[in-house]
Amino acid sequence: MIHRKPAADTPLRLLTGDWVALGEAAGALRNAVFVREQGIPAEFEPDEWDARSVHCVAYRGDEPVGTGRLLPDGHIGRMAVRHDLRGQGIGARVLEALVGVAAARGDQRVELNAQQRVESFYRHHGFVPVGEPYDEVGIRHVRMRRHLLALTAGALAAALGLGTAAPVRAGPLDAISGADASGALRAALERGASVAVARLGKPGGFLDDPKVRIPLPDGLRQAEKLMRATGRGRDFDELVTSMNRAAEQAVPQAKQLLVAAVKSMSVSDAKAILAGGDDSVTTFFRSRTQAPLTERFLPVVTKQVSRLGLSQRYNALAGQAARLGLMKESDATIERYVTTRALDGLYLMIAEEERAIRREPLKAGSKLIGRVFGAMR
């Protein structure tokens, strides 16, 4: 039974473990929320999956205040937070802890069946709806999914500050501190940013790489076909070349801001990257650098496309396409379009470099990266 309300400033402590270790606390919370509060029949609450799942219980002092479980197939469920303590981030901590366990054991994705009234909460944490809403025990639900990076237990536990409800065998990860894990991630991202800038900020960096090559906007594709049919395809070839050359000239401006973003990375930023999906690195850099990099890129891009004499031609075609609803307004000027696509390519390349470091940490040239990420393999 749950009686006392812990003080609001009592630190939150999370434990993960099996049903034997955490079942009493988790079961009491679930009974309070699902059976007594929501009126779900008591016989539907516990099931055969409890004994086969990883459970997480959040404590304030000695009081259990939140819980959830992770099934062997990657489903997260039975998420419950005490009624009088909601809105304090407890559910978010439990959810990310379970996502972290799934990522650490190598799951490619996690899924859950969310009550529709809290769909926005799960969206905020990277889950997206899959299929149509449905009814379960008289409550409207929606199936949701989140894709994961392949992570490892040591870095994840360090980043999330998780405890375990039962002892585990000692191993090479035991010697890795949270500071080392965060430091290794910073070093990996800084190196990835530097390599990405160097690779893209040279002749052919964009133009010769299909992954980042900047094409014509969709709204100009029909015009291109017509122009090529009349023998004017060279105009479009020159336009594509000039856009990519402009991006290559702008990218070196990014290194200083990218490195500054990495150095300012907090523990919560590191946790979000480690426990996030495939776009977690991109999300971090976009949130910190997109606005200032846009300001830095625009003058360089403007100078390059103007020097090549193609901006007026592009802007006339694109402006007409935008008025007809064939193009987004953000693509209606060559300067803005190239800047946006240059940043997209840069963030993509950084994310690829970070994944490469995870796969082969010893090639990164850093003892810390090699020790931490090497132990995680």
Report on the structure:
There is one protein chain. With 377 residues, this protein is of the alpha+beta class. It is 51% helix and 14% strand. The chain contains 13 helices and 9 strands. Strands 1, 2, 3, 4, 5, 6, 7, 8 and 9 form a 9-stranded mixed beta sheet that branches. It is elongated and about 75 Å long.
| Number of H- or I-type helical stretches | 13
* Helical content (DSSP H or I, runs of 4+): 40-55%
How is the biggest beta sheet arranged? 9 strands, mixed
Taking all Cα atoms into account, the compactness measure Rg is: 25 Å
Q: End-to-end distance, in Å?
A: 42 Å
Instruction: Tell me the number of strands.
Output: 9
Order of helices and strands: EHEEEHEHEEEHEHHHHHHHHH
Uncertain stretches: 150-164, 166-177
Average pLDDT, to the nearest integer? 76
Element layout with pairings:
Elements: E1 12-17, H1 19-37, E2 54-60, E3 63-70, E4 75-81, H2 90-104, E5 109-115, H3 119-124, E6 128-129, E7 134-136, E8 139-147, H4 153-160, E9 163-164, H5 178-200, H6 221-229, H7 233-250, H8 255-263, H9 267-275, H10 280-307, H11 311-323, H12 334-359, H13 367-376
Parallel strand pairs: 1-9, 4-5
Antiparallel strand pairs: 1-2, 2-3, 3-4, 5-8, 6-8, 7-8
Helix pairs in contact: 2-4, 4-5, 4-9, 5-8, 5-12, 5-13, 7-10, 7-12, 8-10, 10-12
